[in-house]
Write a structure and sequence with these properties.
Elements: H1 3-29, H2 46-72, E1 74-79, E2 84-89, E3 94-99, H3 109-139
């Protein structure tokens, strides 16, 4: 065998060996791409992506359903021993504001303004808390879903 053929075969052998080593390193770092074994309890493959998308769509439908239910619900708040009563829906649209005649004092308008303001704020707070509680049930406590405003 001539020296040139020997060197060529040796180079090919070394390159093949390097390729095998690199392949082993790559597959040990990224087992999810070669479908060999589990990676953090997640079996890789196309089926799981479809399952994940199905779960996301189901969660999105549930979120929309909860938003509609809470949006249609009415929340009633009264302050000052029933002097001011506010009714609001889940979309924070006011349905009614009732003021008892006993709360109206022409000499003390500021007290009436404070009562109305506190009733409105309490109604909004109640609607927000209810929405957060219902959404936490659907999303499993994911918070606000990464800032998407749900």
């Amino acid at each position: 065998m001539c020296r040139k053929a020997y060197i060529t075969r040796r180079k090919a052998h070394i390159m093949c060996r390097k390729a095998r080593i690199m392949y082993r390193r790559y597959t040990s770092f990224f087992p999810e791409e070669n479908n060999m074994g589990k990676f953090n309890g997640f079996r890789p493959g196309g089926g799981n992506m479809q399952d994940l998308m199905r779960q996301a769509q189901k969660m999105q439908e549930n979120v929309q359903k909860v938003q509609d239910e809470v949006g249609n619900a009415e929340f009633e708040t009264s302050v000052g021993g029933g002097a001011v009563k506010v009714v609001i829906n889940g979309r924070k649209e006011f349905k009614s504001i009732e003021i008892s005649p006993a709360a109206v004092d022409p000499d003390d308008i500021e007290m009436l303004q404070d009562l109305i303001l506190s009733a409105v704020n309490e109604a909004i707070r109640t609607a927000d808390e209810t929405m957060e509680q219902e959404m936490a049930k659907v999303t499993g406590g994911l918070g606000n879903l990464g800032g998407f405003g749900f």
